[in-house]
Amino acid sequence: MNRKEFLGIGMLAFPALAASALKPIPPLQPSDHAPDNEHFWQSIRSQFPLGTATTYFNTGSMGASPYSVIDAVYQKSLTINSKAEYGGGDHEAMAAIARFVGVDIDEIALTHNVTEGNNLVAQGLPLKGGDEVIMSMHEHVGGALPWLNRAKHDGIVIKVVQLGITGTETLANIEKSITAKTKALALPHIACTTGQVLPAKDIATLAKSRGIYSCFDGAHGPGMLSLDLHDIGCDFYSSCCHKWMLGPKGTGFLYVKKEKLEELKPIMVGASSETGWDMLSSPPMIKGYSPSAHRFYYGTQSAELYAGIEATVRFHETLGKKAVENRVRYLANRLRHRLKELGDNVQLLTPEESSSRGAITAFRLKNMTMHKFQESAGKEKFSIRTIPENNVNCIRISTHIYNQLEEIDRFADLVKRSV
Question: Which end of the chain has fewer surrounding CB within 10 Å, N or C?
Fold first, then answer.
């Protein structure tokens, strides 16, 4: 690159988002929130940069952020870089997340993703060789590996439980698997495979009654369900902001129940995780850990992404957490109804019980492999996810607030033509 080309790049402008893309959501009336108010939810679709060429049904992997979140990240980056300002500062983001999931700010640690939170819990709990941890056959790699890694290094025993077709059956299966050696239940709140919603509150209550830890991989909870983690009563909950919350990519959080703080050992530490340190003392030492869950994150953080988290929570709060849950369930129910019309040609894997399903619909086709169907769907401009994990081998559809009934009906018609 010559000098002229270099200077040309340096003079490029990076404009903010067009003002038309940042139209605020107008004041809402109760009727606006209705899950079947198509006019309203179509207007919400305009808050996202999603085009119309492809229908996006893969929020379970990555959610699309609204313009307000994208702009918040951009504007904060401009501020930091125009002033050569330190990129820390996270109190507002933690406060927003704590408010969003119904906990205290001191119980939230910021992470980069669910996997990081799962690792912090799996490595930090006081477990020894022979101790048992109960998991399921429906774990994501980021949920399974942290515990399998602890087993590899320290000899803990992983026991796998089968999920039932109802919450009651699932709870019974878990309870039957508990022994005197069981120290933790490490389960998904919502299975990434079939979208089954586990009875988290009942599981946490069971764990507490047996004196064992309740640890949830909550990748799919916040932003799909209207959560209150204090009500659920679990000890630990790892989640991310980039799926159903529709937030910045590479952001997440770990909830640590206040009463369990001192039982979870900090594994990785740095600035902000301690109350002081001294290299001049003999011997050099950490004076103490932060008296909150803040001890589980450390060092320079991304203020830009944290600004995006705040904007993400504001976006959901403007619409109403319960209104979002009702809408995404409504869309999933529409898809489920259309697929059930196809009879035995389609095998639905997401449970029939309403409390055991949310906004994910998983199914298999009788006469077509999931990979062949994904290829056909791609040609029809549908973005979907197949699930090869643990030989579940199914098709997974995630419906969020930017999806429309027309898209679901077109997809159901494609399935009908494929069976």
Answer: N
